[in-house]
Write a structure and sequence with these properties.
Layout: H1 9-27, H2 32-41, H3 43-51, H4 56-65
Length: 67
């Protein structure tokens, strides 16, 4: 089983960033399960937003505006 130290730093940063996005989606009314499923479903889009430098809040707002 892999541990956190086995993951590369960029992956760890992306995971942390997505966790923060999840919090903003929950604050906007999604359940934690809905937010997690949505992030998983749109993983490529969220990854692009991460590498483009959006904050978690900006990415959450952008994803909600696209719906």
């Amino acid at each position: 089983m892999a541990t956190d130290k086995d993951n590369d730093p960029d992956l760890q940063a992306l995971i942390q960033w997505c966790t923060e996005v999840e919090g903003f989606l929950v604050a906007a009314g999604a359940s934690r399960e809905e937010a997690q499923a949505y992030i998983e479903q749109e993983a490529e889009w969220f990854t692009d937003q991460f590498y483009e430098g959006l904050t978690p809040e900006e990415a959450a707002k952008a994803s909600l505006n696209d719906q």
